[in-house]
Amino acid sequence: MTHAHQRFGAALVNTRSTTWRGLSDDERAEPPEALLKAHPALMKRPLIVDGDAMYLGWGEEVRKTLLG
Questions:
Q1: pLDDT given at position 66
Q2: Matching CATH number, 2-67, of 1.20.1560.10, 3.40.30.10, 3.40.50.720, 3.30.2130.10
Q3: Can you give the pTM of this predicted structure?
Q4: What phi and psi, each to the nearest 5 degrees, are found at residue 30?
């Protein structure tokens, strides 16, 4: 997860999830890595690792890159 955090930072945290909505303001203020360790369901998905490349989500740009 460290490599993903270095690459995507706070974008790894899914702030639209029900888990996020259930957190207190104090919990939300914690660093992204600490949040993800305590609440793995907060991680935005999919996280795709293709060799040295990483992709977060399944948006149009990721689909074009991976599917051609």
A1: 94
A2: 3.40.30.10
A3: 0.81
A4: -70, 155
